[in-house]
Amino acid sequence: MSNSESNKLKTRHLTMMGLGSAIGAGLFLGVGVGIQIAGTSILLAYLVAGILVTLIMYMLGEMASARPSLGSFSTYAGQAFGNWARFTMGWLYWFMLIMVMGAEITGAAAILGSWFGVAPWIPALVAVVFFAVVNFAAVRGFGEFEFWFAIIKVGVIIAF
């Protein structure tokens, strides 16, 4: 395999990475807490949120078609409102991803800690080190991992 082929992601990698990024420990933990608090009306909340996310993605697709450029939300905010909006959106997006990562690791640590009867910091440390190694892997290896990890997540949801 040539070097250029090892640095490319296939369509299946990108598709499952997009799907897998929407499925996290928060979904498994959050649904239980939501049902406990709100009952089955949580389904209505998920429906409304799903419609809103779908509309936002359609809008982003329209902007990308009308003005193709590198970047995403922050790029289009900058085009519309200037560099201050680009800067603000970029940092807000980074902050959101950092908070989601912390929530995901906390959720995974709580689940694994209760399964194996260990302190939650142990599976959290293992998860952080493991995902750091995966993220430093070659692009194709990272894509393969994300593909199979997303397949497992989808399988668990179907099983539930």
Main features:
160 residues, mainly alpha, 84% helix, 0% strand, globular
Q: Can you tell me about this structure?
A:
It is a single chain. By secondary structure, this protein is mainly α. It has one domain. It has helices at 3-6, 11-22, 25-38, 42-66, 73-81, 83-116, 121-135, 139-159. Helix 2 (11-22) crosses helix 8 (139-159), helix 5 (73-81) runs antiparallel to helix 6 and helix 6 (83-116) packs across helix 7. The radius of gyration is 18 Å and the shape is globular. The termini are far apart. The model has no long low-confidence stretch (mean pLDDT 84).
In short:
This protein has helices at residues 3-6, 11-22, 25-38, 42-66, 73-81, 83-116, 121-135, 139-159.
Which regions have little confidence, pLDDT < 50, spanning 5+ residues? none
Separation, N- and C-terminal Cα atoms:
39 Å
Rg over alpha carbons? 18 Å
Structurally, the number of domains stands at 1
Q: How many helix segments?
A: 8
Number of DSSP strand runs: 0
Task: List the secondary-structure elements in sequence, H or E.
Answer: HHHHHHHH
Fraction of helical residues:
over 70%
Shape: globular
Class by SSE composition:
mainly alpha
State mean pLDDT (0 to 100 scale).
Answer: 84
Strand content: under 5%
Major pleated sheet: none
Oligomer: single chain
